[in-house]
# Entry
Amino acid sequence: MSQVGFEILICFLAGAGAGLGTGFAGLSAATVITPMLVVFLGVPAYQAIGIALASDVLASAASARTYAKNGCVDIRNGIAMMIGVLSMTVVGSWLSSYVESSTLGGFSIFMTWVLGVRFLFFPILAPKDTMRKRSGAQQICDGLAGGALVGLICGFFGAGGGMMMLMVLTMLLGYELKTAVGTSVFVMTFSALTGAISHFALGDAPNLRLLVLCMIFTLVWAQGAAKVAARSSPIALNRWTGMILTSLGTLLLVVNVI
# Structure
């Protein structure tokens, strides 16, 4: 296989994994694309993260649009979360400088696996209007606090934004899974855009072929997954999300052990 053909294959696989993770579970594309580009194509980590973030923008926007059509995006609370996320990421990054990187990575992988098992065996079947029963002011305060916690965690661990956001939305704020995923990808659209612009502005220009391929494949798979997820029953979506997170957590655990 030629070098170009191999690059297309890796980008296709990375885009498929990232797109499915984004569409079904609201995961960041960086979780899949970054390690695949680094390991298989030798792309510098900083550039790989930038490509992954750029792929996240269109994939998350398309997924959020699909979920919004089905009434599964809490825009007002999502904006409040986004403010909290962006404001606390810097603080988390500063705190992480005092902790061993192996400890941070291990905890992130462990939480991915735990969250997957949680959705598989303890599905979230809360009614869709759980959050809407609270006052508008309380929803905004909850969103700001939840977003601040997500930003702190993401800055601290350096990755796992979508997974951590999903954990906060479902476990702490009481969202049902579809609205949690829809709100998560809505927030990630803007946080990924900010991250991608800063990466490309501060670093070298990315490999345009890899950038375009990853963006296209991730977008296609994410849009397809979001359409299936938005029409799935709550129990089916819990199982799909659980399988994706558990498989990803197990794979990352095996790779780190090896």
Residues 57 and 189 are 5 Å apart (CA to CA). The chain has one domain: 3-257. The mean pLDDT is 78. Residues 3-257 form one domain.
